[in-house]
TrEMBL record:
<feature type="domain" description="Lon proteolytic">
    <location>
        <begin position="563"/>
        <end position="758"/>
    </location>
</feature>
<dbReference type="InterPro" id="IPR046844">
    <property type="entry name" value="Lon-like_helical"/>
</dbReference>
<dbReference type="InterPro" id="IPR008269">
    <property type="entry name" value="Lon_proteolytic"/>
</dbReference>
<dbReference type="InterPro" id="IPR041699">
    <property type="entry name" value="AAA_32"/>
</dbReference>
<dbReference type="InterPro" id="IPR020568">
    <property type="entry name" value="Ribosomal_Su5_D2-typ_SF"/>
</dbReference>
<dbReference type="InterPro" id="IPR014721">
    <property type="entry name" value="Ribsml_uS5_D2-typ_fold_subgr"/>
</dbReference>
<protein>
    <recommendedName>
        <fullName>endopeptidase La</fullName>
        <ecNumber>3.4.21.53</ecNumber>
    </recommendedName>
</protein>
<dbReference type="Pfam" id="PF13654">
    <property type="entry name" value="AAA_32"/>
</dbReference>
<keyword id="KW-0720">Serine protease</keyword>
<feature type="active site">
    <location>
        <position position="653"/>
    </location>
</feature>
<comment type="similarity">
    <text>Belongs to the peptidase S16 family.</text>
</comment>
<dbReference type="Pfam" id="PF20437">
    <property type="entry name" value="LonC_helical"/>
</dbReference>
<dbReference type="InterPro" id="IPR027417">
    <property type="entry name" value="P-loop_NTPase"/>
</dbReference>
<dbReference type="InterPro" id="IPR027065">
    <property type="entry name" value="Lon_Prtase"/>
</dbReference>
<dbReference type="Pfam" id="PF05362">
    <property type="entry name" value="Lon_C"/>
</dbReference>
<keyword id="KW-0378">Hydrolase</keyword>
<dbReference type="InterPro" id="IPR046843">
    <property type="entry name" value="LonB_AAA-LID"/>
</dbReference>
Amino acid sequence: MKKPLDVSALYQSCDSSLFVFHTTNELEPLEHPVGQERALDAIDFGTKIAQDGYNIFAMGPSGSGKHSVVMSYLEQKAGNEPAPSDWCYVNNFKDPRSPIAIELPPGKALPFRDNIDELIELLKTVLPAVFESSGYTNEREALNQKFMDEQTDIFRHLQEEAIKRDVQMNISSSSRITFVPVIDGKVLSPEEFKAIKGEKKEKIANDMSEFEGLVKEALRKITELNKVHQKELNSLNKKITKEAVHSIIDEVRQRYAENEKIKNYLNEMEKDIVRHVQDFLVKPEEMGLPSFMMEFYTSPFERYKVNLFISHEQENNAPVIYEDNPVHQNLIGRIEHASHMGALVTNFSMIKPGALHKANGGYLVLDARKLLMKPFAYEELKRVLRAKELRIESLAKQYAFVSTTTLEPEPIPLDIKVVLVGERYLYYILYHYDPEFKELFKVTADFEDELHRNEENHLLYARMIGTIAKRHDLLALTPQATARVIEQCSRDVSDAYKLSTHLHTLADLLKEADFWAQKNTHKVIEAEDIEQTLAAQKARVNRVQLKLYEQIDEGMIMIDVSGSKVGQINALTFISLGGHEFGIPSRISATTRIGKGEIIDIQRKVELGGPIHSKGVMILSAYLGSRYAADLPLSIAASLVFEQTYGRVEGDSASSTELYALLSSLSGIPIKQNIAVTGSVNQFGEVQPVGGINEKVEGFFDICMHHDPKASYGVIIPEANVKHLMLKNEVLVAAKEGKFSIYAVKNIDEGITILTGVKAGEMDDKGEYPATSVNGKVLTRLKELSQKAKEYAHGKKK
């Protein structure tokens, strides 16, 4: 019979003598986590290649530190790259609905904005002074006098014509003309005019009619003169304004002579100022607006301001931006609106940048899961990456939610590397279902979950532990504490020869150890602080586990750990609940009888068994048929069930256990109840590895120790799982004392021999097994059932 594993195989310790430091403070910090060279090489490639579509998807389990690694690497790389261009939005004087985007060298947008502000402030002072100067006043007065003289000449001519026609003409201060007939120097009243008869009255009427025509012609001339006068005044104002404005704007124009867009903008600004010079001459308080209207007053000078859209005046390198909330407007920017007199209004100054604008010329990091959860965000990201330009459009406009007038800012060229950070399943889903994804994210940075254990990596891991401790301002660790952390990280990946690269779990362990060390007034983190941390972590989450143990102790869950029984066995099961993983035994029972070769999985029948579990049960019938009934009918009916399970059972890790129960039921040989089993089996009877091996073994150990700590117990595991063993110290102590044995088996024959104490038996040349062996008794029983089935069928036919 196979011997139990040696204690040395149950736990691979880390030799603290390997570490020559007194505390981890003496170790040189690591720039990047160990074991991620492949992912870093992929990121390096993705950031250096300049072709389209080579954006990056950094994938790995949540908490593996991929986000911090990506950010750290990009920030380091961006530190050696130049800052990108600044961008401003300015008013489009020809079409205010289409603001103009202006590109400037890095750090030059702020001075440009200040230059324009200073220009406007200067014009606010200069223009009123120009219009109050004696030169302007004299020219204006000359034009006014010319107009008055020409108007006076027209009125003088009218007066002369009135005298010729015996008409008295009166002119009011508002240039309103009235006239009445005169006879012999006397103004006729309406009654006197009515009293006149004959030709005299007709002559007076004709004279009045002719004079009325002259008056109309005179008024027309005065109107034309007034128009000409106003044009001359406007021309004078424009000439004076342009002379003042041109010289002032020209100074700014010279500073940006190489920027064609700014020159054109300044030219249009000059024309607009000349057209709206009155805005510079009249102050708001002089406009005579009612007080309640003043709060709605909008300064006309807002249209001359510069929207400082993206500015790098305090940066000397390429930007690295992480957008934590990648909603549509946070990605591509937005156009804000303000309420004005009951309406929503906007202008170019309300255009706000998004993360893509801020990262333009550098790197943008996004959480893939968050991006996919935000409506329209992922599609918009793909659109701008394809178009290679940033066009700010509201969702309301794109999807016709509303039909209000809004802005259409000039798009900005896009030059960026986008890094999506997410779990592997997101990458595979996107790659499979989205044909555009593989064209836009051609670089995959796959972060490792684990790292091989060897002396070199132990030393590197110690440096990583020290780096995390320094980064979070924690106490340093002793070599013994460092070794204990390494051992725990090996247990975290359930592999004695590997280490976990899950940085968040490691950092949490060190933070909590720092808490307990300080509580214990230790100056450094010692091994006992690590042990206390692990115990406290378990105590916070193991309530359900202890409740199940309590139910087993009380007999509510029926588990036998002593004696022997036919067709009954203890299976090692694994439960993961809210991040806490633990093992607990479960009784499996099997019954056999005459039938047609069917093995009934009761779990599957009641829809409590998953497909993988059902697959494992189906393999059992294949094994029985191929091994024992190759030349005869398999005339059995068997039932298998996990006793007292009320939830879904999934996985094939109990398939070997179920097979042992079947063999016991067929052979009639009882199984030792103090030994529990785990492992899947294939059609050839080979025992295959399973997951959660440490938790399963420890779960059965805890139950056994609760039952009778002085008795002897054991477990059977697949031989391939030996390398995964990192068992707790209590199990190691019990194993040394011979109270708890762990057997590693390759096949079913080795396992059934340990469980029954009876040899499995090997087939001879005639295809027979020893009669007293387990296999011999199974074969005998199957032959009996086959014969009975044959006799029964023959008798039924008769």
